[in-house]
TrEMBL record:
InterPro entries to which the protein is assigned, alphabetical: Cyt_c-like_dom, Cyt_c-like_dom_sf, DUF1585, DUF1588, DUF1592, PA14/GLEYA, PA14_dom
Stated name of the protein: Secreted protein containing PA14
GO molecular function, one term: metal ion binding
Signal sequence, renumbered to the chain: 1-20
SUPFAM superfamilies linked to this entry: Anthrax protective antigen, Cytochrome c
Keyword Iron appears in the UniProt entry: yes
Domain Cytochrome c: residue ranges: 31-104
Domain of life: Bacteria
PA14 domain: residues covered: 151-304
Pfam family, one: PSD4
Keywords: Heme, Iron, Metal-binding, Signal
């Protein structure tokens, strides 16, 4: 039993001050190192192996972790060796701890003994989806969406005409509508100020044109309600999503479910026709709504709409199987039948849209070309293959692939499908780093594009620059990364990274006890999701882009519904928030109806006390200091924890009605076997006890004042204490442990490789660079892209 406790506590347990102080009081000398090694070989190696690798007979797990020397020394003094713990105490325990830590236990020792290497990886599911979208977009053009454009270009372009035809002389109104949500009645459309526009309300046309911004990949439901004849085109100008041109009697609601890709603007066009009837013409109305992943139905806000023309975008319904997350980030390492089937399905979907849409568009653009249709198709496919295989058509072997497809098929659509399958099921596409025979510019641009956008390059300007060999130097690669960081595809990946870091998902079940938390419904949860995303964006995309504000900001983003539920600290500083949500407010800022709250340093502590995070790490009726503590120690501080031996249900409040949640947790985790881990977990989780299971601030529980005191032991044995979430947030914001953990997580998420594979000192160097930049997140993203493009 003690051998098991040793391996677990070596990873997680702080120790008493005296042993820890002794352990860090002096640097190890050669003699101390030799003494520690000798004691370990005599008293420990028979159970744990000569190099801590474990032994099959006694303890098979290796001795590795991130505890400090002081923590190791304390454990050894208390418990080792198992048959006689008093044999190794005091200076001997410290000597053994120093030897273990330096020889094989610490992270530095692990990197030295077994340095990680760059793993050969295929495209992940997200990378496949984004790469196919980039290839599709290269043929049909990609609309770049910057942060400035998202803040200033909102709504849909609208044209209103009176009468039957589409003649210019019938045009009465041309404007940008923030939303599509109109009840025209029998009077017809009016000007923005409500005055008459000269439109016959019984006989007119209305046309909306633009795009829908998608910020999260997932399942969306598009909903159009109208009492009038209309058609809705989506994704491509020939893809008719809803056809109500011949109006269905008694039907005025139309729903379509789509899987959409983050970072894209999907074109949408709605044509509404009010026809004069022989009898009474019914009133006209129309609204465009949606349900986002994890959301509730709402009229699509202006911030998600982009006016004017938008190029076609791939619509991919195939669901890719989950990728490996063993090391805390997605990796494309598994190849099995389910993955192969999903790739085939996705490629066939892509091929059908290429055949039915892009090939027709290509012919239209080349209608004056003198070449034969077959020659045009060969050129079209060669261009597609060259993008997929990241080289010129000749180097990509496009002619060989096209010849095979042409020889095997007579029908044009079959030739396209065959060529696309050969090109996109090829390792040349699926393994984008198999490119040593490609130019330096191609190799660098592919790595930077994958890091920033999760996609191989597809933008025309980028392909042109690559072919000119413009990314051979580090300065050129840094300039490219700076250019790509301000892009909707990067913003989407940043949002997904934060969701992953905070361990939140649109599929989370956040329902709570309805009696105890009346009013905490789906609409409040949807507002909380929007609030958190708006807060993250407001920090990351501000000029400072300061990580420390994420941890300690004394404000958040709110709506009237959140202010009603959470109280005065969630009131807005902007009076416009209290006005009806008619879409006009969306144009004034990039966050729509979400506005900054009043400042309150007690209630608002960055993301740490955001109600969505607090509700995620809580039970149905009560808080969970354990879940919150595990989140903080692993995700925020970057420390390691082994999973518990068994899953234990929390003590029921009914069994101890007089105890607070903290007291019940302390009671349940008081045994020595539990304290192995909970001595680190609980003090962090307790600091958030002022926030209940839905994230509302409270000062008492069961008639007793909240005790939010807590603490943390750093990797260097420094003891830190705090008595509130505010002190916790202020500490985390400046903690090198936390900053280094954040840098490592961001690197791994964006590059999908361990940072140590780029050099054992790379994490320390990048963390110091991050600190020197003022903890600027955008600059961190750029440097990560530059590092991964080095050779």
């Amino acid at each position: 039993m003690k051998q098991f406790l040793l391996a677990v506590i070596l990873i997680v347990v702080p120790v008493g001050h005296s042993v820890a102080a002794e352990a860090k009081s002096v640097q190890a000398t050669d003699q101390e190192h030799a003494d520690g090694r000798a004691i370990f070989q005599t008293q420990c190696a028979h159970c744990h192996g000569a190099k801590g690798q474990g032994t099959e007979e006694n303890y098979p797990d290796p001795l590795v972790g991130d505890a400090s020397i002081g923590e190791l020394a304390g454990l050894i003094a208390d418990t080792m060796p198992e048959e006689d713990p008093d044999q190794c105490v005091g200076e001997d325990a410290v000597a053994v701890a120093r030897y273990i830590h330096d020889a094989f236990y610490s992270e530095a020792a692990q990197l030295r003994n077994r340095p990680p290497r760059l793993a050969l990886q295929r495209l992940t599911g997200d990378q496949l989806r984004q790469s196919l979208s980039n290839i599709y977009g290269h043929i049909g053009q990609i609309r770049r969406d910057t942060w400035k454009e998202r803040q200033t270009q909102q709504g849909l372009e609208a044209r209103y005409l009176t009468g039957k035809g589409w003649k210019d002389e019938n045009l009465k109104i041309k404007r940008v509508d923030p939303q599509v949500n109109f009840d025209f009645g029998i009077e017809g459309p009016k000007k923005a100020d409500g005055s008459d526009a000269g439109i016959d309300g019984t006989n007119f046309h209305a046309h909306w044109n633009g795009g829908i911004r998608i910020e999260e990949t997932g399942r969306y439901e598009i909903i159009v309600r109208s009492t009038t004849s209309f058609q809705c085109f989506f994704g491509h100008d020939r893809n008719k999503l809803i056809d109500n041109h011949v109006q269905s009697e008694g039907r005025d609601e139309f729903r379509r479910t789509l899987n959409l890709t983050a970072g894209r603007i999907y074109p949408i066009k709605i044509d509404l026709i009010q026809r004069k009837r022989k009898g009474d013409t019914p009133p006209s109305s129309i609204s465009l709504s949606w349900i986002r992943p994890g959301g509730v139905e709402e009229v699509i806000p202006a911030r998600y709409l982009a006016p004017g023309w938008a190029p076609a975008v791939l619509r991919l319904s195939t669901q890719m199987p989950p990728d490996d997350r063993t090391y805390g980030f997605q990796r494309g390492i598994s190849v099995d039948p389910s993955w192969d089937e999903a790739v085939t399905s996705a490629v066939l979907e892509f091929a059908d849209q290429v055949s039915e849409e892009l090939w027709a568009d290509y012919r239209r653009r080349h209608k004056k070309d003198k070449r034969s249709r077959e020659e045009l198709l060969r050129n079209f496919l060669g261009e597609l293959i060259s993008i997929a295989h990241r080289a010129s058509p000749d180097q990509a072997g496009a002619e060989r692939i096209v010849n095979v497809a042409f020889e095997a098929n007579e029908i044009e659509a079959d030739r396209i499908r065959h060529a696309v399958l050969l090109a996109l099921k090829s390792p040349r596409f699926l393994y984008p780093t198999i490119d040593q025979d490609r130019s330096r510019s191609w190799r660098a641009a592919v790595k930077i594009s994958l890091a920033m956008h999760d996609a191989i390059p597809g933008d025309e300007w980028l392909i042109t620059a690559i072919e000119r060999n413009e990314y051979e130097t580090k300065d050129q690669r840094r300039a490219l990364a700076n250019h790509l960081v301000d892009d909707a595809r990067t913003r989407a990946k940043v949002r997904e990274m934060f969701h992953h870091w905070l361990n939140i998902s649109s599929s989370d079940d956040l329902r709570k006890d309805e009696e105890r938390f009346a009013g905490f419904d789906a609409s409040v949860v949807a507002d909380l999701r929007g609030s958190l995303d708006a807060f993250l964006e407001s920090v990351v995309w501000s000029p400072e882009s300061d990580y420390r504000k994420l941890m300690s900001a004394d404000w958040s983003m709110t709506t009237p519904a959140l202010a009603d539920f959470y109280g005065d600290a969630w009131r807005s500083t902007d009076e416009r928030l209290e006005a009806p949500n008619d879409g006009e407010a969306d144009i004034a800022n990039g966050f729509g109806r979400f506005q900054p709250t009043v400042r309150d340093p007690t209630v608002h502590v960055g993301v740490l006390t955001h109600p969505l995070v607090m509700a995620k790490f809580a039970h149905h009726q009560n808080t969970s200091p354990i879940h919150r503590g595990v989140f903080l120690i692993r995700h925020v501080m970057g420390r390691t924890l082994r999973p518990p031996n068994s899953a234990f249900a929390p003590l029921s409040p009914d069994l101890h009605p007089d105890l607070t949640t903290r007291q019940r947790v302390e009671l349940q985790t008081s045994p020595a076997s539990c304290q192995i881990c909970h001595i680190k977990i609980n003090p962090l989780g307790f600091a958030l006890e002022n926030f209940d299971a839905v994230g509302r601030f409270r000062q008492s529980e069961n008639g007793k004042p909240i005790d939010a005191t807590g603490g943390y032991t750093t990797r260097s044995d420094e003891q830190v204490s705090f008595d509130s979430a505010r002190q916790l947030g202020d500490y985390v914001a400046e903690s090198r442990d936390a900053q280094s953990a954040f840098v490592s997580r961001v690197f791994q998420y964006f590059v999908k490789q361990p940072i140590a594979a780029y050099g054992p000192e790379k994490l320390d160097e990048l963390t110091e660079q991050f600190r020197q930049s003022g903890c600027n997140i955008r600059k961190l993203l750029v440097e990560i892209a530059v590092i991964c493009s080095d050779e």
